[in-house]
């Protein structure tokens, strides 16, 4: 009690509220970006990209960046903004992502962190005192493997080969361990581009098929590794992940697929996020009620 005999309201004040963030996780190709847009158009939100390759400027096809049209006007942070020749580390991500989260929260909007680089997400969550809602979009591996293989074919159809060719400087040694050149779909083309001027059309076609096959295999391996990390975060670190099984969505086409997405992924996610943002637990309600009662009692004296 203070010397004046009144109630010390400072003691009764609740601690500063943690910044609330939604984290959308999942293997490559599962629909994380789609879900983040679904949520950001239902809640006042902005998106922070956590894909360590999509942070780089350029190679939009190879890195499968969300398009301007697909963004639906939702602001995105750390997407295609980093010099493609620089090394963007987990520490760099934590620093820049935390600034983005702080800025978004200060504007009374919800930060949605989305991407497949689970090591970067883990580093951010470990270093920052956030209150998190984790959404995990999951697709069975056999179904996902089929999808990502077809996605690679579509990427080839819309210009992936020329996009990589225009970026690489084959007159010099290329370090494929740095910057955007680490992206799946870049180092696989090295041998093809170096041999291309010296082989005939049939040999070029055969070699290109081998490159595309390598890209598909590497993408499938990436999906498997991403899932292993998610399992570790859930089972070893105890992250409370809301798993959303989108497998049935990928088995359907057109309107049926869209309806399945809304029923199995977008709809449940909206309910989960709504509860995360607006529901107050009984324990917290009890504390708030006690504080209000104490303040009312103090005011009456």
Automatic annotation (TrEMBL):
<keyword id="KW-0809">Transit peptide</keyword>
<keyword id="KW-0203">Cytokinin biosynthesis</keyword>
<comment type="function">
    <text>Involved in cytokinin biosynthesis. Catalyzes the transfer of an isopentenyl group from dimethylallyl diphosphate (DMAPP) to ATP and ADP.</text>
</comment>
<dbReference type="GO" id="GO:0052381">
    <property type="term" value="F:tRNA dimethylallyltransferase activity"/>
</dbReference>
<dbReference type="GO" id="GO:0006400">
    <property type="term" value="P:tRNA modification"/>
</dbReference>
<keyword id="KW-0547">Nucleotide-binding</keyword>
<dbReference type="GO" id="GO:0009824">
    <property type="term" value="F:AMP dimethylallyltransferase activity"/>
</dbReference>
<keyword id="KW-0067">ATP-binding</keyword>
<dbReference type="GO" id="GO:0005524">
    <property type="term" value="F:ATP binding"/>
</dbReference>
<dbReference type="GO" id="GO:0009691">
    <property type="term" value="P:cytokinin biosynthetic process"/>
</dbReference>
<dbReference type="GO" id="GO:0005739">
    <property type="term" value="C:mitochondrion"/>
</dbReference>
<comment type="similarity">
    <text>Belongs to the IPP transferase family.</text>
</comment>
<dbReference type="InterPro" id="IPR039657">
    <property type="entry name" value="Dimethylallyltransferase"/>
</dbReference>
<protein>
    <recommendedName>
        <fullName>adenylate dimethylallyltransferase (ADP/ATP-dependent)</fullName>
        <ecNumber>2.5.1.112</ecNumber>
    </recommendedName>
</protein>
<dbReference type="GO" id="GO:0052622">
    <property type="term" value="F:ATP/ADP dimethylallyltransferase activity"/>
</dbReference>
<dbReference type="InterPro" id="IPR027417">
    <property type="entry name" value="P-loop_NTPase"/>
</dbReference>
<dbReference type="Pfam" id="PF01715">
    <property type="entry name" value="IPPT"/>
</dbReference>
<keyword id="KW-0808">Transferase</keyword>
């Amino acid at each position: 009690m203070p010397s004046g005999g009144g109630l010390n309201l400072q003691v009764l004040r609740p601690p500063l509220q943690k910044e609330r963030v939604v984290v959308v996780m999942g293997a490559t190709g599962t629909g994380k970006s789609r879900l983040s847009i679904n949520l950001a158009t239902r809640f006042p939100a902005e998106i922070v990209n956590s894909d360590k390759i999509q942070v780089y400027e350029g190679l939009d096809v190879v890195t499968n960046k969300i398009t301007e049209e697909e963004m639906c006007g939702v602001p995105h942070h750390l997407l295609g903004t980093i010099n493609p020749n620089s090394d963007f580390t987990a520490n760099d991500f934590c620093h820049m992502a935390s600034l983005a989260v702080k800025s978004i929260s200060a504007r009374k909007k919800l930060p949605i962190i989305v991407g497949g680089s689970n090591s970067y997400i883990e580093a951010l969550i470990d270093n920052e005192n956030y209150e998190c809602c984790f959404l995990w979009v999951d697709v069975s591996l056999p179904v996902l493997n089929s999808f990502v293989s077809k996605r690679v074919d579509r990427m080839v159809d819309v210009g992936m080969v020329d996009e990589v060719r225009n970026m690489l400087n084959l007159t010099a040694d290329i370090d494929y361990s740095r910057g955007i050149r680490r992206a799946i779909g870049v180092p696989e083309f090295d041998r093809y581009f170096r041999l291309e001027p010296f082989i005939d059309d049939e040999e070029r076609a055969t070699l290109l098929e081998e490159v595309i096959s390598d890209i598909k295999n590497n993408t499938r391996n990436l999906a498997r590794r991403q899932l292993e990390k998610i399992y570790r975060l859930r089972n070893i670190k105890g992250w409370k992940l809301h798993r959303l099984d989108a497998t049935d969505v990928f088995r359907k086409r057109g309107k049926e697929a869209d309806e399945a997405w809304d029923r199995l992924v977008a709809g449940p996610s909206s309910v989960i996020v709504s509860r995360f943002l607006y529901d107050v637990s009984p324990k917290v309600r009890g504390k708030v009620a006690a504080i209000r009662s104490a303040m009312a009692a103090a005011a009456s004296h």
